[in-house]
Amino acid sequence: MCANFFGLNAVKHFGANGLYSTQRINQNPYMNFGQAGLDRDTFEYKSDSLGRHTNEANLIQMIKSNPRIRQILRENGMQSDLNMENLRALLAGHAKDTQKIAKGITEHLPVALKYGVNEKSLSDACYLHDLGKVLIPDEILNKPARLTPEEEKIMHTHSELSYELLKHTDIDTRTLDLIKYHHQNPLGSGYPQAKPDFNADINLQILSAADKFSALTEKRPYKEPLPVEKALAIMYKDVKEEKMHPFVFKALVAHVREQMPIPTTAKSA
């Protein structure tokens, strides 16, 4: 794969449904991505129907019925207290924002990649991917400073906790895997540790990209929202490092351009 930041020629396998990309990304990674001209498919958000998985009574029952959840909590010195206030804010804000961004990415993918998207599983996973944060202590989740290594380890349990909370519900296996591995990538360098046959398919890469862009551009207790162009510059590093398929990034940029103008910050050659 060409290592040049601009004019990147992505020819190496990125693990997205076994597809390769040979399209060159324009020298200005923000401004000159043409739109795909794809038909707009329906991307239904079933957030209301998923509410049964996010109410307090059901969450308590999920914890009681799953020894693995209690093991994770015990190993990390955590309690089973539920932070419902944070969960409600997360579902109303970040979760729905992640859904909308994933929808936009999907709509701007090339047709060959778009056919690999399971829109229902992706939408459901976008809404539920951070459910496990209901068990992360507030002093860690909303700490107005950098986490210590020990706190970061606890924070990283949220994706597996999301999976374990939902594992015995009617959520399908495909969606559960997206939820569990939304912080993984084609290199397997994310978390939690993936099995040898793990494949960061197009659905997972869309979810990961949407989640990261939403997180970068929203206000958190420990940071102000980043400008769109800076968030995209950070995410473009994932393309260079082969953690994201270039077409997923290109589709994200096209979606963002539809939503808001992106100032030109780089000179064209």
Secondary-structure map:
Layout: H1 56-64, H2 67-75, H3 84-107, H4 111-114, H5 119-128, H6 138-141, H7 149-155, H8 158-166, H9 173-180, H10 202-217, H11 228-240, H12 246-259
Task: State the gist of this model.
This protein is mostly helical and 269 residues long.
Structural class: mainly alpha
Number of domains: 1
CATH H-tier superfamily: Hypothetical protein af1432
- The secondary-structure element order is HHHHHHHHHHHH
What does this structure look like?
The relative contact order is 0.19. The chain has one domain: Hypothetical protein af1432 (Orthogonal Bundle). Helix 5 packs across helix 9 and helix 5 runs parallel beside helix 10. The longest helix has 24 residues. The N terminus is likely disordered. The chain is 47% helix and 0% strand.
